[in-house]
Design goal:
Structural class: mainly alpha
Largest sheet: none
Number of helices: 19
Order of helices and strands: HHHHHHHHHHHHHHHHHHH
Strand content: under 5%
Mean pLDDT: 91
Number of strands: 0
Distance between the termini: 100 Å
Length: 484
């Protein structure tokens, strides 16, 4: 006589098979997005190598004079000696080592290494942030991987390439400090900030957010007040001692710690007046950019349009890639401006969500018991404050000197990862609705395809019509600043 299986055993077996199939179904999409993430990394590296091969050495700034001086005398020039000598000297000393070894190709090779390292740090950070959805991570990484402006300014012979790398490194060290809050990691973060201050003055806007970050992190860990104050003081001391050289020199020689070529050279007169009234602050008519993809009298008096346009596209001719000056190829810029509205909107939504969540958390810090949620708010609010201060620095300097070339989106690139983070928060909001998610995925896809088309066209033009890789003045016309 056969024994009948107990019904409960059968049902348990069925449930276990169902659970196994469910787990396998959950693993497959995760594996797919992981491979997509790795493919984006590979594509970003390939694009950087190709652009490196075909793009000239310089943008519109003469960093070569400073580089040659440092490589000859091994001493930094003061701000009045050369147009770009107002910058802190770290990049020029590092580049001078490569210049003595292999001339300009070796120096641009340094830029390529830093550019690839920046992309890898961003990818590593995205992998470490558990609150960023796996489905969102490939889209977030695609932005720095394919963004032509970000790629080109990380490949010029310019201190921008080191500043962009150090900006990403500082944000990585912030996360490292959260995961392992040791005194040595505090020192590493201080060294990162000091190196940034020794590279470019934009890192002055990092000081207050990072001090606030250390204070909030210490409070979350319930550090005793004397110990927390010691960490704040030591952080500030290390960063100041390491990064203060140029600011002290400027104060001694010129009476101000922040002197620039806007103060010492007379090239600014031809770029005034940018300010034509309140509409310079609030003119967001993007159709002007669509109609005139390259800087013109229709856009030069608008602060928002100049920053938006130069962030997403080569609004200002500033490289040996000159497709933006040739019709109909520059119509691709019009498409990029329109496609970029989607991610720009998501960044704005993400920034507002991070800001509101930070405010809510500030009112309930005594009742908040989720450490990972606290870490997320502290990290995101620090990065958001950094990029906001970076933005206000651009606007305030442009306002003060009334010069249109100050309003460049590439000046936001040292805090680029903060923009990626608010983009992820915006995409998280869009994921709550299939319709919203599909719409913004279409915007992102259109933007990435436009980026790729732009790079392909520029490489094709560079092969057909080679130009002098040593050229620096890429602006072929002067704008009539009195026209409206």
């Amino acid at each position: 006589m056969k024994r009948r299986k107990h019904p409960s055993a059968k049902s348990r077996h069925g449930r276990s098979e169902q659970a196994s199939r469910s787990d396998q179904a959950a693993v497959e999409p995760s594996r797919y997005y992981f491979h997509a993430f790795r493919a984006v990394i590979a594509a970003g590296i390939v694009i950087r190598v190709v652009v490196f091969v075909y793009m000239g050495y310089f943008n519109n700034d003469d960093h070569l004079s400073v580089l040659e001086y440092v490589s000859r005398y091994w001493f930094p020039p003061h701000a009045a000696q050369f147009n770009q000598a107002y910058h802190p000297p770290l990049y020029y000393f590092l580049a001078a080592l490569f210049f003595r070894w292999g001339n300009l190709p070796a120096v641009q090779g340094l830029s390529l290494l830093l550019s690839i390292a920046t992309l890898m740090i961003i990818a590593l950070l995205l992998r470490q942030l558990a609150w960023v959805n796996e489905r969102i991570k490939p889209w977030c990484l695609a932005l720095p991987a394919f963004h032509p402006q970000f790629i080109m300014f990380s490949l010029f012979i310019s201190n921008d390439t080191l500043a962009i790398f150090l900006g990403a490194l500082i944000f990585y060290l912030c996360r490292r400090l959260q995961l392992t809050p040791s005194f040595s990691n505090h020192c590493l973060l201080a060294i990162g900030l000091g190196l940034g201050l020794l590279t470019k003055a934009v890192f002055l806007v990092f000081v207050a957010p990072l001090l606030l970050f250390i204070w909030m992190t210490g409070r979350r860990q319930a550090l005793p007040a004397p110990r927390l104050l010691w960490r704040l003081a030591s952080f500030f001391a290390i960063a100041s001692l390491l990064g203060s050289y140029k600011y002290v020199e400027n104060f001694i020689l010129f009476g101000s710690p922040t002197v620039s070529n806007l103060d010492l050279w007379r090239w600014t007169a031809e770029q005034r007046p940018t300010w034509i009234g309140v509409r310079s602050l609030f003119d967001v008519n993007i159709l002007k950019l669509v109609r005139d993809p390259v800087v013109s009298t229709s856009t030069v008096h608008s602060y928002p349009l100049m920053i938006y346009g130069s962030f997403w596209y080569s609004l200002i001719p500033e490289s040996t890639f000159h497709g933006n000056l040739i019709a109909p190829f520059n119509r691709l810029g019009s498409m990029i401006y329109l496609a970029a509205l989607g991610p720009s909107f998501l960044m704005a939504v993400g920034a507002s969500r991070v800001g509101m969540e930070t405010i809510r958390w500030g009112f309930r810090t005594t009742t908040e018991r989720n450490p990972s949620h606290q870490d997320r708010i502290i990290y995101e609010s620090t990065l958001l404050l950094t990029v906001l201060l970076n933005f206000f620095l651009i606007v305030s300097v442009g306002w003060r000197y009334d010069v249109w070339s100050v309003f460049q989106g590439r000046l936001l690139f040292p805090s680029y990862f903060a923009l990626i983070l608010v983009l992820s928060a915006g995409m998280e909001w869009a994921a709550s609705s299939r319709l919203k998610s599909n719409i913004f995925h279409c915007f992102m896809l259109a933007l990435m395809l436009s980026f790729l088309a732009y790079i392909i066209i520029e490489i094709w033009l560079a092969v057909l019509y080679p130009v002098d890789p040593l050229s620096m003045n890429h602006m072929p016309y002067q704008i009539d600043m009195n026209a409206r």
